[in-house]
Design brief:
Elements lengths: L1 E3 L9 E3 L3 H10 L11 H15 L1 H23 L3 E2 L6 E5 L3 H13 L5 E3 L10 E5 L6 H17 L1
Antiparallel strand pairs: 1-2, 3-4, 4-6, 5-6
Length: 158
């Protein structure tokens, strides 16, 4: 089993959980391992604390809120004529499918206080240019509504 700790747990790094033979094989042959560093004790403890929180009542409440604001954002995109790929994951793509328009929208968002990441060729194939929004449990409905209003303003003026 492999996993990342970067998005869900808020720390750097990732992990491999496997037999000693597989772990040793990866250490000796994986090219990306040569320049990597192990995660720190504090990063490990932060990830473990995140698991503790998510496993309890507070975590269930946070996850329910996260699902709701993610859905609200997706619905707002669709209502305003934007293409997205719906799903339960809180990293929400806005499919722009044009390099220059992606850059223009990202700049407009930034100028209006909304942080989003534009993904253009060669990071994604031509025709799949995307803006990636990362919704978090700390976002409020007002935050989501504001981001959608900025996107609506862009659509109305371009």
């Amino acid at each position: 089993m492999i996993g990342t700790l970067g998005k869900a747990f808020g720390v750097n790094g990732g992990f491999v959980a496997a037999s000693a033979t597989v772990v040793e094989y990866l250490r000796e042959t994986a090219p990306m391992y040569v320049y990597s560093n192990p995660i720190t004790v504090s990063e490990t403890m932060a990830a473990m604390k995140a698991i503790d929180i998510l496993s309890g009542p507070e975590g269930k409440k946070l996850l329910k809120h996260l699902a709701a604001v993610t859905k609200r954002f997706e619905d707002g995109l669709k209502t305003n004529g934007y293409e997205t790929i719906e799903g339960p994951h809180p990293v929400v793509p806005l499919m722009v499918r044009d390099t220059q328009k992606t850059a223009d929208i990202v700049n407009f968002l930034t100028e209006n206080g909304v942080l989003a990441t534009g993904l253009n060729y060669p990071v994604v194939p031509k025709g799949d240019e995307t803006i990636r929004f990362q919704i978090s449990a700390s976002h409020t409905e007002a935050d989501i509504d504001y981001a959608i209003s900025v996107l609506k303003k862009y659509a109305d003026t371009h």
